[in-house]
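How a chain folds remains the central question behind the approach discussed here. The record that follows shows the chain in one-letter code together with its fold in C-alpha cell form:
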Amino acid sequence: AARGEPTASGAARSRANAGGAGGAAAEAMADVPLVSDIEITRYVSPALSLDKARLQTSGSRSAHIIQLSASNPDFDAALRVKGSWADDTWTGTIDTLQNKGRFALTLAAAAPLKLTAAADTGVAGLLKPEQITLGATTINLPAGSIRLDYLEKTGHTWRSKGRAAGIPVNYLAQLSDAWRDNVRSNMTIGADWGLDLQAQTRALDGSVHVFREQGDLTIIGTDLPQALGLRALDARADVNGNTLRVQLNVDGSRAGQAKLDASAQLQNGRLADDSSFTLNGSANMGSLAWLAPLAGQPGLEIDGTLKATISGNGTIAAPQLAGDINGDKLTVNWLDQGIKLRNGLLQAHLTGDQLQLQKLSFDGTQGRAEADGWIRYAANEATMQLKLSADKLEVLSRPDRTLTVSGSSTLVRDAKRFQLDGKFRADRANIELAGADTPTLSDDVVIVGKSAPGAKAAQGMPLNIDVEADLGNDFTLKGKGLDAQLAGSVRIRIADRRPPRVNGSIRVVSGTYAAYGQKLAIDRGVINFTGAYDNPGLNILAVRRRPEGEALSETNVEAGVEVKGTALAPQAKLVSTPTVSDSDKLSWLVLGHSIDNTQGNDMALLSTAAGALFGGGGGQGKLANALGVDEFGVGQSSNSNSSSSSSTASGSATALQNTVVTVGKRISSRAYLSFEQGASTATSLVKLKYKLNPRITLQFQTGTNNALDVLYTWAFD
C-alpha cells in the first residue's frame, strides 16, 4: 500500500511480487521476478498535491524496467529507466523523461546513468548514493535545449559541465510571478558552465556564463511599456581558489550601457561580513523611462539621463567606496495624481562608507524643491540624514486638485527607526472632493492582466513622524456640498507604530454648505484636535440667510443648524433668530417659511430633512439624494381639481386615484420646481412656486390643469 504524511489524504492500490536475499544468496536471487504496480490518486500534503501517481516495475534484479508517472495542475511528468542491480551498483539508462505541464521538456535520447550505494547498504543505499554518474544528456524544451556533458558525484564531491542554447526568457519567467507581471520578452539566452563543488568544505571552483543570444525585453508593469533595445546582456561568474569574480555587461539603445567587474573572497563557499572585495563599475543611461513601469503605478512617467562611476574595496560589512553619480534633465510626471516635476538635477558623491547627496532638485509647474544629505553603510547597518525644502512648489496640479506648498523637513534613520520632522505651509490649495456617486469598481471585479495583491509584507522599521501643517491664507475645499475657505494649522505625530496624535485647529474663514436646494452660510466652523486623530471637537454653525435687507422677525426667521461635541459623538440642534419652535426652525431652514404654511409635498420634504439631520432617513430620501433632487415621494395630490376624483368612488379607490409620484427641486431660496405624475391615471402637473416675500407666493401650474395662483399667508400671534 502507499501511505503519505500524517496530514496527507488520498487513495492507493498496489500489487507487488519481489524476491531478495542477502550475502551469498543474492547471486541466486538475481533473476527472481521484480514486479509491482502502485497507484495513488488525490494525494494531498503540505508539500505536494497529486491528482494521480503510478509506479510500475517489471523484469528481475538483473534486468528490469521502472516506470513512474505523476500529474497535477502544474505538471504531467513521466520517467522510464531500465537497468540492472549487482554488487551495490545500479547500471542502466534513462529511456524517457518528459513533462507536458509547466516547464515542458523531453529527453532527446537515452542517457546512461550509474548509481553506487555504500557498501552493505543494499538497494536502500541508492536513496543516498555514494557515487552518481550521468553521461551525456540532451533535454529539449518547447524552444531551445540544454546539453549536459556530465554530472558526477563521488563522496562529497560534485562535478558538472554543460551548456544551453535558445532558451526563451519567457520559459524561465514561469519561476517568478513578479517577472511575468512586469516583463514581456522575445529574447533567448544561452549559457555554459563547468563547476566542481566540495560539499563538505563548501569549496567551489568553476564558472557560469549566461548571455543574450537575440531578442529584447519590454518592461510592461503599467500602461506605458518600455522596450530596452538590448544589444548585449552578458553575465559571468568565476570561482578559483575561494576567489569569486563577477562580470556584467549591458548595452541597450534605451537601457543604456552598464559594466561591472567585482571580486570577493569566499569563506566556506559564501560571502561573509568580513569577506574582502574590490569592484569597478560604470553606467551611462541616456533615458530612465524604462524604470517607470517597474514602480507598478499606472500613468507614472519618469525620464532623464544618469551617469555613474564607482570603485571600491574593503569588506562586505565595511565598504570603502569612491565615485560619482550625476543625473540631468530628470522628470517625474504622474498625471493621475497631478504631479509634474521637471528639470531635475542629481549630484552625489561616494566616499568611504557614505553617499553624499550634494544636490537633488526639481522644478514644478510652479516653484522648486531641493534635497541634500547623506546615507551611510557601516557595521552592516544603514543610517541616513536627508533634508528636503520646497519653495512655492506646486506638488499637485489637476483639474480637481491643486496644491502649492513651502517648507522643509528632515528624514533621519538610525539603528532603530526612521524619523520624519517637518513644517509646511500651503501657499495655495483648491481641493475638490469626489462625490458620493463617483463610479468605483466593485471588490469582486478582476482586471485582466493585473495580478492579485500579494500577502501583506512583514513590518519593517517603524516610521516616527512629527510634522506641522499650516493651511495658509488661500486654502479652498469643495465637494459633498461644502464650498469653504479654510485656515489654521495642525501638528501630526506618530511614534512607535501607535495611532497618530493630532493637535491644532482648523477653521472655516468663509463658506457655504449646500443642502435641500439651499446654500447654508457657515457662520462658525471650527474643528479642534486635541490628540486622537479620529475624534476632533466640533463647533459648527450653518444658517440659511434671509434675503438681504429684510428685517428678522417671527414672520421672517433665519434658521440654521449648530453642531457641537466630537466627531464620534456629535450633538446637532436647530437654532434660529428670533427663537421659534423646533418644527418652525426646520421649516424655515428647509422651506423658507413657517410650518403653518406647510402641507402636502413640503411635509414629506421636512420629514426627509429631519431624518437626515437627526438620524434615520427613509429610502425615499436616499433615492432623492442619489437623483440629485430635494424631494422624491409618493403621496396624495394637492390639486383639488384633479379630473381623477369621483364623489361616488369608495375611499380606497379615491386614494388610489389621487396617488401621485412627486419629484421636486429647490432651484433658489425663493423658487421651487416640482413635477407630479398620477400613479394610476393619466394626470401630470408641473408646478413652479416663487416666494415674492414672506407673505405672498406665486404658483404657476401647467399640465392636466393649468393655473396661476396667488398664495398669501397672514400670521397672528
Q: What stands out?
A: The chain has a mean pLDDT of 83. The first helix runs from residue 25 to 28. The longest strand covers residues 381-398. Residues 1-125 form one domain.
